[in-house]
Amino acid sequence: MSGEQERYVTVEGCVSCDMNGEKVVLNTASGIYFGLDGVGTRVWELLAGPHSLDELLDSLFDDYDVEKDVLKNDVAAFVGKLHEHGLISTVDKTTPEDNKTES
Questions:
Q1: b/e map of 12-22 (b: 16 or more CB within 10 Å)?
Q2: Is 100 within a domain?
Q3: Interacting residues of 19 by C-beta distance below 8 A, sequence separation 6+
C-alpha cells in the first residue's frame, strides 16, 4: 500500500491500569471506562506512540497466530471504536522528528 496513512495515538486525559494481564482504560473527560482483552491491551500499549494501522498490524502479526485479513478487520474495527469514544486521536504522519537532517 502506498501513500500516507493516518497515525493514531492515545489522548491525554485517559488513564489505564493493569488487571490480571488486561487493561482497564478510563476516559476522564467522559467518565466512561473500557476493559481491554489481551490483544486490545497490546494495541493500547503500542498506541502510546503514534502508529498507523499497518504499523500496528506488523507488530501484532508477529505476536498472534491469526490470518492477516482477520487481524486487519478486527484491529481496524477496534481502532475505530477507540477513536469514536475519544480514547485515541489522529496525528500527522510526518512529524518534526521525521524532518530532522544530519549536519
A1: eebebeeeeee
A2: no
A3: 35
Query: Nine-digit cell at 8?
Result: 493514531
For residue 44, the enclosing domain spans 7-91
Per-residue pLDDT of 33-62, as tens digits, reads: 899 998 999 999 999 999 999 999 999 998
pTM, two decimals, is: 0.81
CATH value at residue 34 = 3.90.930
Give the DSSP letter of residue 11: P
d(CA 55, CA 50): 9
Whether the CB-CB separation of 83 and 7 falls below 8 Å is answered with: no
Choose among 33, 25, 24, 37: nearest CA to 75. 37
Count of the separate structural domains present in the chain: 1
Which three-class secondary structure state does DSSP give residue 56? helix
